[in-house]
């Protein structure tokens, strides 16, 4: 049995554990719960003699850990799965621990089989995954076949099969009359594994009771009642009857009613008297997670906030409106729409002369097989966002290449003109139509760019 009396630990001006007293009895799995920074790891280190308490005491079987004869054979612990020399194989790591404690070598092979590491027993531990490291740490804790076992987050990194194995292992060890003390943040796993709970917050004891009593003391049971969705007047009629009978009724988002203060048989009788058909009448009990969150909500030191993305978003231009939220964005199956094409008009898919955007639109491709002369020129009107053809660099005064905009796709390729005939303010150059794709190539000759 583990017993702590008035346990206190201070690090400078910070108090990690304050006046903590509890007992961990054999024959049951005791869960050790608390928020991050509540002092769980510090408490377990003081139990194992790794940290000296500022005041108070903690004993195992009536003795401090350091005074236990051959302590590794009486107490097994997993506090840090990474506390292994990476250059050693799994078997050599366990063998060195066994030799220090007078444990026969055959026990090493036994625990390797228990944790399922026979296949990698001769491999160096530095190549182990997190789950394999956890299994090796559990093997080290079981090495001396101890009566007292302490585990700090033993299922971290394990797959579902490994989590189930650890759960059954804890229960089997407790069923043999051993003392099993387990710290974990997985409330769902603790609800399935632990028989008793010790909950601390900011270094102080918050609860020391069974799992069932803990849930009942920190949650309110309620009944869930549902009437036919097609007849909302029945729900209002039932709600009035339940309220008049002394119940407290709250509507839920899916249309059901949450009723407290009345037992299920009484709710059924009231619905029968009011001539209201029920689609659902079920009891609800809070989970361990809900009860834990309710108790420890005032003892959480590290709380997350909403990411405001301050200073990362581009400022909006003057007069621009912030983007409207996209319906369905962030939901499963939602995909962002394709970005709009440059030029102001989207390109229609080739599905006939009309296309998905109506008739022959400006800026839409013609139907497949249509003559080139009959197709509308998508570049007939200049657009401010259109991609211009790269102009030639500044030419000498006696020679300048200028592209004359063409209105018809069948027009010949533009020719070079002397600089004297160039207009004073030429319009924005346009790309040549598809009928003359080689025209821009004549404007970028090396001798023109000099």
Automatic annotation (TrEMBL):
InterPro entries: AAA+_ATPase (IPR003593), ABC_transporter-like_ATP-bd (IPR003439), P-loop_NTPase (IPR027417). This is ABC transporter ATP-binding protein. GO terms for molecular function: ATP binding; ATP hydrolysis activity. It comes from Streptomyces filipinensis. It comes from the Bacteria. Residues 315-326 have a biased composition (Pro residues). Residues 342-354, 362-395, 404-441 have a biased composition (Low complexity). Residues 311-450 are annotated as: Disordered. Residues 2-227 form the ABC transporter domain. Belongs to the ABC transporter superfamily. The keyword Transport applies. The keyword ATP-binding applies. The lineage of its organism: Bacteria, Bacillati, Actinomycetota, Actinomycetes, Kitasatosporales. PROSITE patterns: ABC_TRANSPORTER_2. Keywords: ATP-binding, Nucleotide-binding, Transport.
């Amino acid at each position: 049995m583990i017993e702590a009396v008035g346990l206190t630990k201070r690090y400078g001006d910070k108090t990690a554990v304050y006046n903590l007293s509890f007992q961990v009895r054999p024959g049951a799995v005791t869960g050790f719960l608390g928020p991050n920074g509540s002092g769980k790891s510090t408490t377990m280190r003081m139990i194992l003699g790794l940290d000296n308490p500022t005041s108070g005491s903690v004993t195992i079987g009536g003795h401090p850990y350091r005074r236990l004869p051959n302590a590794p054979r009486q107490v097994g612990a997993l506090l840090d799965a990474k506390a292994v020399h990476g250059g050693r194989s799994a078997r050599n790591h366990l063998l060195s621990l066994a030799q220090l404690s007078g444990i026969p070598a055959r026990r090493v092979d036994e625990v390797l089989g228990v944790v399922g590491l026979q296949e990698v027993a001769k491999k160096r531990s530095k190549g182990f995954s997190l789950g394999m490291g956890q299994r090796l740490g559990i093997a080290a804790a079981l090495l001396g076949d101890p009566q007292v076992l302490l585990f700090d987050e033993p299922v971290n990194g394990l797959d579902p099969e490994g989590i189930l194995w650890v759960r059954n292992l804890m229960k089997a060890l407790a069923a043999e009359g051993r003392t099993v003390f387990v710290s974990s943040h997985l409330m769902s796993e603790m609800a399935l594994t632990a028989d008793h709970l010790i909950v601390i917050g900011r270094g102080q004891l918050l609860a020391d009771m069974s799992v069932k009593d803990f849930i009942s003391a920190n949650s309110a049971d309620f009944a869930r009642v549902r009437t036919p969705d097609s007849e909302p007047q029945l729900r209002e009629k039932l709600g009035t009857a339940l309220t008049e009978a002394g119940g407290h009724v709250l509507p839920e988002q899916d249309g059901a009613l949450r009723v407290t203060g009345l037992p299920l048989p009484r709710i059924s009788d009231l619905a029968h008297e009011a001539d209201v058909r029920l689609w659902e009448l079920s009891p609800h009990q809070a989970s361990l997670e809900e009860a834990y969150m309710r108790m420890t909500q005032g003892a959480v030191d590290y709380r997350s906030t909403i990411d405001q993305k301050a200073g990362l978003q581009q400022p909006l231009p003057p007069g621009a409106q912030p983007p409207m939220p996209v319906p369905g964005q962030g939901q499963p199956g939602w995909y962002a729409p394709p970005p709009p094409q440059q030029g102001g008009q989207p390109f229609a898919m080739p599905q006939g002369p009309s296309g998905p955007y109506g008739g022959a639109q400006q800026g839409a491709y013609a139907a497949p097989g249509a003559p080139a002369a009959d197709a509308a020129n998508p570049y007939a009107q200049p657009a401010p966002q259109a991609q211009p053809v790269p102009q030639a660099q500044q030419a000498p005064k006696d020679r300048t290449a200028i592209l004359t905009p063409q209105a018809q796709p069948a027009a010949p390729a533009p020719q070079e003109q002397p600089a004297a005939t160039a207009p004073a303010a030429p319009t924005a150059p346009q790309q040549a139509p598809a009928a003359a794709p080689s025209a821009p190539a004549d404007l970028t000759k090396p001798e023109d760019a000099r």
